[in-house]
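quick one before i forget lol
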Amino acid sequence: LVLFDWGASYEDYFSDITRTLALGDPGEELRHIYSIVLHANQEGRGAGKPGLPASAVDRAARRVIEQAGFGDFFIHRTGHGLGMESHEPPYLYSENPLSLESGMVYTVEPGIYLPGKGGVRIEDDVVVTADGCEALTSLPRDLIVL
């Protein structure tokens, strides 16, 4: 597995995205890990809305990974804000009480990293809207096997 983490800036605003690709067949275990992370990413992307704490997004993504038995292998926060810095508030971690507001932009980037085997992270950029959030990232999220 190879993680590609990149971004771009436009008129002083940043983006940030990660996709995981496989060089050859990754095998059943790593495909399973990929499907868990993809589900966690979906839950995280759908969890934000105005008035909810930033921690709710972390909990939504983290819950998927923990319920699958891989909580010990999700070793970073679920995401961070994007704007004129590539890492800024809101930081999406389990104890952050900061309320999300319409117009905030942040990443959702759950991951599972198995020592000696490989890791998967799927990162997207989202914006909080008046009634939820919308993905700004349109790149496909399916596992690409080269």
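fyi The mean pLDDT is 96.
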